[in-house]
Amino acid sequence: MTATTNRPLRHAVIGAGMAGILAAIKLKQRAEDFVVYEKAAKIGGTWRENRYPGLSCDVPAHAYTYSFEPYPEWQAYYATGSEVQGYFEQVVAKYGLAADIRFNSEVSALDWDAGTNQWTVTLADGSRDVFDVVIAASGVLHHPRLPEIEGLDSFEGPAFHTARWDDTAPIDGAKVGLIGSGSTGIQIVTAINKKVDKLVHFQRSPQWVMPVPQFQYTEEEREAFRRDPALIDAIRFADEYIGNIKRFTDAITDIDGPQMTMIEDVCRQHFESSIRDPELKEKLRPNYRAACKRLIYSWCYYEEVQHPAVFVETGKIARIEPKGVRMADGTFHELDTLILATGFQADKFIRPAGVTGENGMTLDAFWATRPTAHYAVTLPHFPNLFMLNGPTGPVGNFSLIDIAERQWDYIDQLIDLLRKGEAASVMPTVDAHNAYEERRIAAAKTTIFGSGCTSWYLDATGVPASWPWSYDAFADAMAKPVLSEYAIRTPVAA
Questions:
Q1: How many folded domains does the chain comprise?
Q2: Whole-angstrom Cα distance, residue 413 to residue 205?
Q3: Quick one: 412 and 442 in the same domain?
Q4: Mean pLDDT confidence for 437-457
């Protein structure tokens, strides 16, 4: 006999960034018992951590909002990082979430108790609490990756990762070195090139750049957005965004099809027509296919990188010295400030927290080959643990808010089994997950991400760690869990 009555649940949400705020709002609207654990002193996640010059979101501002919380006040088509952070702070205030968030509370361990069907959450200060459900919303880009370059610690001036921006570092009128040419490096070039005496941009490999429009919204337009939210929806669902996203996912999964050809043609034409100096053009010419790395969306990079203060250095760095950077060919770049735009450890997720699930299985052991999750959301061996923007989820130039909202709808249906007393615990079966991973890996290898470049999209074995099917396929998968793929353990009646 099994219980069928509703039962109250306690939820732990890890992280108060975009996804954690979403989970908190949804749980609060249900009048659920929950706590959000945030390791930092304020909300925002990656938008809190990153505040370097030029930071902007490469998703149109009106598409990078919660579907239920449009924002008419965006200043431009693409928003600055500080604007995005401000948006999340306003949402937290509007929904009264501050009291539900425990700041400066880093989760150090999660331990499953099969006897009680609960998780014990241990914080870095040693305190503990017990929960029925854990929502891991820690995000991906929050553990900075530092380059392994000889002598980095010997540099006499400020040397820092972009996610640890040093406001005291000399920039104006200074000789600045910038290592890294992903989105962060590109944005910094466009922001400081006219301020410095010299900017040496060290890049291991150049990037394909997709040209995009950027324009300011007028006060009249913002007033129209305030009066009529349908005008916001017209932007959020416009073909310029939704159509481009669907075409993009079609392109990455059909790398010789017409959509990928169009992307490559646009990027190539933009490149060829924008760089005037032949030597610089060859430095900036990628040797891999467009979109193999994450596409750079920029309305001004090619123009700004041609500023006379910028020198693009494509040689190999030999070592860092107290006064600057020594190249393998002997060239020395004297610098006052060294900026490390070298990305993040994208395979960490909620780690270094130690997670121990059923029968002593640890997350480190389960992820020994690669981080993985069933449809990017759930994990075998780890009951009642759900991930937002977890491993193998969609990656690309589109709104992770939209992805998280779809994942929440999927998660909420599984949690509902627990709420209704129809299950004491739920997790995907090993067989179902293995079958999913087998399909995913085979498909991922044929995507543009696996076409022959190095990027943070690739796992330790060189397999793209991503959703390898279309946007519509992801939306369909998130619409309803396939319960036959889950081990659903019913509670024993009292």
A1: 2
A2: 44
A3: yes
A4: 95
